Amino acid sequence: ILNYDIMARFRRRTCIILLLFILFICSIMMALKTLRPDRVGFGDPFGLGLLLELQQRTVLLDDKQNSLNRVQGDTVTPVNHFHDISFNTMKASLPAVNKQEEELSSPNYNFHIFYYIWFGNPQFDGKYIHWNHPLLPHWDPKIANNYPKGRHNPPEDIGANFYPELGSYSSKDPSVIEAHMKQMRSASTGVLVLSWYPPGMADENGEPTDDLVPVILDYAHKYNLKVTFHIEPYKDRDDRSVYHNVKYIIDKYGGHSAFYRYKTSTGRFLPMFYIYDSYVTIPEIWANLLTVSGSQSIRNTPYDALFIALLVEERHKHDIHRSGFDGMYTYFATNGFSYGSSHHNWASLKAFCDSNNLMFIPSVGPGYIDTSIRPWNNHNTRNRVNGKYYETAFSAALLVRPEIISITSFNEWHEGTQIEKAVPKRTGQVVYLDYKPYKPNVYLQLTQKWSEKYRREQEQWLM
């Protein structure tokens, strides 16, 4: 009897729950019917129109957010799963979105960016160049023995900690050159500082590249960019050889519309040359070339120009002044690596330059890592911190109100200072760094943001 009563109560409870559930379903269906448009017939996919409307709102919100990002510099790009759904009615709006993304910012000729054309691959050069960079040994043999030796083996294994979106490209590839110019222009930089060796010369891991300069100038002109030259150190570089270098460059390339000239305070338009590792030559030798009374003086000749020296140590500022240089730059993207690259020293360097009629050109960079070619150099790595390191450098540069800011670099992949587009990649034992959670163009966007900020602040400085 007891079991019968328990079973009866269980059946009644089950029936009540089932009845309540049916009533609940019916009420939901009635509520949905009141929301259902009258024009919808039986079998129409109710809810699809609502989903489409939500998707359209998502795209509009994304467009609005992208516009705000360009103004405010917010590089976070939200990802929404609705973008994976394809609707014919949405296709008409896509060209406008793409067109908006393709718009290029106006060039800022006070933003100079270091550019390297030393990369090669079998398709254009018959072999890999620079991507197969050797692992450089530490100068102390005891330390060197603790690290691997050999070379990188492209295209999967390259001499870089990041991997370029364009792959292990050749600097001679016209499509690569055009992509680079487009990226630099989208970043609102205006002057590319071209790494340059005299004809027939190159760095120890590269090949001569002077014959590529005319092509670079042509593509730069297409994107309204200008080109200046970063004269690299080479054997026996001195006042006489640099005089011939400058004469060669101006005679051969000075007439090109993309050749950069800087308007001085006296109204003259002069070429500009960055001299890498200038400090290895004593001031007396430079003074022969760069002072009016020098034995090899280039001053007040058709080849006069602005010469910018590399400052590494604090004492170099006095050497630069004595040498007759027109200014100094700091190049390295590692805050704290050298006196010149340490942000907190820029104010005093700018004050020194102002009092001695010199230009101060701080160099900002997105980060630094070169352990793919110097595996023992971890202590100089500077994490990008998702762009915060780069923005901190820009902020420090703007505080000293420089006439020009230089950027290290567009594509020095070996040292991980590039702002060129990079993509995630994993191959074998190698996992490359990337720009996630942001898109491959995040550092181009950040550069564009700070270029616009520089323009606004410069207008206030000049008032």
Automatic annotation (TrEMBL):
Entry keyword annotation includes Membrane: yes
Keyword Transmembrane helix: yes
EC number: 3.2.1.130
Catalytic activity entry: N-{alpha-Glc-(1->3)-alpha-Man-(1->2)-alpha-Man-(1->2)-alpha-Man-(1->3)-[alpha-Man-(1->2)-alpha-Man-(1->3)-[alpha-Man-(1->2)-alpha-Man-(1->6)]-alpha-Man-(1->6)]-beta-Man-(1->4)-beta-GlcNAc-(1->4)-beta-GlcNAc}-L-asparaginyl-[protein] + H2O = alpha-D-glucosyl-(1->3)-D-mannopyranose + N(4)-{alpha-D-Man-(1->2)-alpha-D-Man-(1->3)-[alpha-D-Man-(1->2)-alpha-D-Man-(1->3)-[alpha-D-Man-(1->2)-alpha-D-Man-(1->6)]-alpha-D-Man-(1->6)]-beta-D-Man-(1->4)-beta-D-GlaNAc-(1->4)-beta-D-GlcNAc}-L-asparaginyl-[protein] (N-glucan mannose isomer 8A1,2,3B1,2)
Membrane topology classification: Single-pass type II membrane protein
Listed InterPro entries: Glyco_Hydrolase_99
GO cellular component: Golgi membrane
Domain of life from the UniProt record: Eukaryota
Keywords from the UniProt entry: Golgi apparatus, Hydrolase, Membrane, Signal-anchor, Transmembrane, Transmembrane helix
Subcellular location: Golgi apparatus membrane
Gene Ontology molecular function, alphabetical: glycoprotein endo-alpha-1,2-mannosidase activity
EC category name: hydrolase
Database matches in PANTHER family: ENDO-ALPHA-1,2-MANNOSIDASE, GLYCOPROTEIN ENDO-ALPHA-1,2-MANNOSIDASE
Family: Belongs to the glycosyl hydrolase 99 family.
Protein name in the entry: Glycoprotein endo-alpha-1,2-mannosidase
